[in-house]
Amino acid sequence: MSGSKPTTGSVGVDSTKKLKISIDPITRIEGHLKAEVEVKNGVVVDARMSGGMYRGFEQILVGRDPRDAVQITQRICGVCPTAHATASSLALDDAFGVTLTDNGRIARNLILGANFIQSHILHFYHLAALDYVNGPDTAPFIPRYKHNDIRVSKDINDLCVGQYLEALEIRKICHEMVALLGGKMPHVQGIVVGGTTEIPTREALNAYAERFKKIKKFVMEKYIPVIYTLAGPYGDLLKTGVGHKNLVSWGVFPMDSKGNTLLKPGVYTDGKDYKVDPTQIKEYVKYSWFEDSTTGLNPTRGRTRPEPGKAGAYSFIKAPRYNGKPHEGGPLARMWATNPELSKTGQEALGVKKLRDIGDACFSILGRHVARAEETLLVAKAVEQWIAQATPGKETFVPAAIPENAEGLGMTEAPRGALLHYVEIKNSVISNYQITSATIWNANPRDDMGQRGPIEEALIGVPVPDVDNPVNVGRLIRAYDP
Known about the structure:
- The chain has helices at residues 57-61, 69-73, 81-96, 102-128, 154-182, 202-230, 331-338, 344-350, 365-389, 438-442, 454-459, 471-479; strands at 19-23, 33-40, 43-51, 191-192, 195-196, 247-249, 252-254, 261-263, 266-269, 272-274, 281-284, 319-322, 406-414, 417-426, 429-436.
- By secondary structure, it is an alpha+beta fold.
- It has one domain (57-479): Cytochrome-c3 Hydrogenase, chain B (Orthogonal Bundle).
- GO terms for molecular function: ferredoxin hydrogenase activity; nickel cation binding.
- Heterodimer of a large and a small subunit.
């Protein structure tokens, strides 16, 4: 579906009065999410994001063999299971005291890299694009808002719809690339504590490389250009949806055994850059359906104890804070921390060389799409290098015994944001497991201090000229890829 029908109960009233709009569910996302916004004088003045599904993986994992966690946690998400497999395996690597071989590191990068590219292409073409172009008057392109603010010419519209269909094939090829080294997709079997189970053969790497050529061509010649093409008719969306302007990235894609990563770790708070300090992360639950006794805890000491129906709460998403403040995760955060040069197309379109040169326009609906597209190309170029660096027939796995008692922390990135897994092992089984998923950083509710979550804050000021067709609310939310 292109958009859920908002419910207001007061259509046609004076625009100077507050009007509440509830969009439930938010469509074209992966998961269960509801938005409630208050509109006055044609703009959003307050917002609440509600995650209505309790997953309970933290309870499922208690008492299990630690090695099960890599497989079980992948079921958190069908779009980015490889990110959860990576975070879980990193936590277990830490607990088991394992250092990967270079070939194991590269194999993991190739598996996750293909999924990253697939996820970004999925996000724009099959989840977000219908906020900017109209498909045919048939499913899955309808139903949609009656007045959905489509501004592109027919030629551009038809071009994008054609790419929408082509992107389905491109995503299938990305899945095949994951399966060549990871065994299957979704929910790969080949990522494990200690590396990967599949030693890459020359045949497998050649098959991966042949498929990759089509992927890179699509990214460079279609995905990147169409993002900048939209910046013309939708230029105002480079000024809409600012938010807190605080960012977190844990870093992803290790380039060596020394901790250097392709996409850099970093924290950006109140206009200043900081190094990542995991002790500064705390999760608050005053407005979440979890026991108040668990609020304000670092994930390494966290507990997940649901309390459905808790007075004043409105979400099953906890509110993570870094150094006490809300922070946004995702491609914008990673690209801000990394600050790479833009593609040639991006430099020509924006007249700047590096991502941070874009400035405040990054913190916008369309700015987040630009960051995601540019990141896709950056990852694609790295994948090309990893294909050349992988050694056929060389070991990718380091065996290690299950420790009797240990702790492990895995911090990486899912396509949609910063991802953390923590495992505590006692008597050789999992005694505590905590997951701070990527979307939790963005779609969380207010915290104990009353601070809105990042999406909630970014919605403030978003134009809603027609309360029956709150197009920009959906555009803003989907720009985060929740």
